[in-house]
């Protein structure tokens, strides 16, 4: 009888161990599925990089408008930056914007260089005019938080409609359409570095002092369309960001997004986050000319879902 019991004991121990191991794995899985941190981080990273890129491209637009016409556009020449356009090789003019100081709004400290290349004879105000824009170790530190992001990139910047920002509201000129597409290497504060693709269309409307910028995505990858950014996040997960409702920014709101919807998707991990812009500090939708302070994140991670509100910038 004792012999039979002794034979069963190892089997019983192994069964208990397997159940405990399975339970631990299930707990870890549920914990991971109920965690929105990677989605939140991606949301913040993408918004931060877009904000930095928009500001730098507005600098590029201002320089091209100024150099092409001897006039300043409504986007001022960059603060704490020097402009050098003396380099002409064969049929290419190269303009360098070298940063070393605070942005005009005082929110960011910028160093590094943005290089603009255009063909001799190409005027930025021409319909379809295109230039090459490269960021060289473009380092941006947010003054409020001390967080730094470094961007190196190679993009094509196209004036789809033709014209300049300062022309809006005059002589029947009602909209200005720009497109930017290419790739960028982003290095985050934790030293992780990732390569992202970008395909963003920006449409300006309004008049001086009341400018509005509407953004759409026109990129495609596999079965995904309307992509504005796609690549790999800090956790080495492949993601796709689509704009499913145009995102609207207002100069009167310090170029913060006031409406629109984006969707971040990480298909291999069954994760997604829907970003809805335009909420106040009480988490209510803004109305009239009020400027928002927050945006809403509705996330899905496996079988788990949740919502949160995050502050702009």
Keywords for this structure?
single chain; 313 residues; alpha+beta; 15 strands; 48% strand; globular
Descriptive notes:
The protein is of the alpha+beta class. The protein contains two helices and 15 strands. It has a 15-stranded antiparallel beta sheet that branches. A hairpin with a 5-residue loop joins β11 and β12. The longest helix is centred in the first third of the chain and has 33 residues. The chain is globular, with a radius of gyration of 25 Å. It starts with a helix and ends with a strand. The N terminus is likely disordered.
Q: Element order, helices and strands?
A: HHEEEEEEEEEEEEEEE
- Ends: how far apart? 73 Å
Coarse shape:
globular
Helical fraction equals 10-25%
Number of extended strands: 15
Q: Which stretches are poorly predicted, pLDDT < 50 over at least 5 residues?
A: 1-5, 7-32, 70-75
The major β-sheet equals: 15 strands, antiparallel
Gyration radius (Cα, Å) is 25 Å
């Amino acid at each position: 009888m004792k012999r039979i019991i002794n034979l069963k004991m190892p089997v019983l121990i192994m069964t208990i161990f397997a159940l405990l191991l399975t339970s631990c794995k299930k707990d870890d899985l549920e914990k991971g599925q109920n965690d929105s941190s990677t989605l939140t981080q991606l949301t913040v990273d993408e918004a931060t990089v877009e904000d930095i890129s928009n500001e730098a491209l507005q600098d590029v637009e201002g320089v091209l408008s100024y150099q092409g016409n001897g006039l300043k556009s409504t986007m001022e020449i960059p603060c704490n930056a020097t402009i050098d356009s003396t380099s002409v090789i064969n049929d290419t003019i190269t303009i360098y914007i070298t940063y070393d100081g605070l942005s005009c709004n005082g929110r960011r400290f910028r160093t590094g260089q943005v290089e603009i290349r255009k063909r001799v004879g190409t005027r930025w105000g021409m319909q379809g005019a295109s230039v090459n824009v490269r960021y060289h170790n473009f380092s941006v530190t947010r003054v409020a938080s001390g967080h730094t992001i470094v961007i190196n990139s190679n993009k094509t910047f196209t004036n789809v409609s033709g014209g300049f920002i300062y022309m809006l509201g005059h002589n029947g000129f009602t909209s200005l359409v720009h497109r930017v597409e290419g790739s960028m290497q982003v290095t985050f504060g934790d030293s992780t570095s990732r390569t992202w693709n970008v395909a963003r269309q920006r449409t300006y409307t309004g008049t001086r002092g009341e400018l509005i910028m509407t953004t759409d995505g026109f990129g495609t990858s596999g079965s995904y369309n309307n992509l504005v950014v796609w690549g790999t996040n800090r956790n080495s997960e492949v993601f796709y960001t689509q704009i499913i409702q145009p995102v609207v920014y207002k100069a009167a709101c310090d170029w913060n997004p006031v409406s629109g919807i984006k969707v971040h998707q990480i298909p291999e991990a069954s994760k997604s986050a829907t970003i809805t812009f335009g909420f106040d500090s009480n988490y209510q939708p803004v109305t009239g000319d009020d400027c928002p302070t927050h945006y809403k994140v509705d996330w899905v991670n496996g079988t788990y879902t949740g919502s949160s509100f995050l502050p702009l910038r």
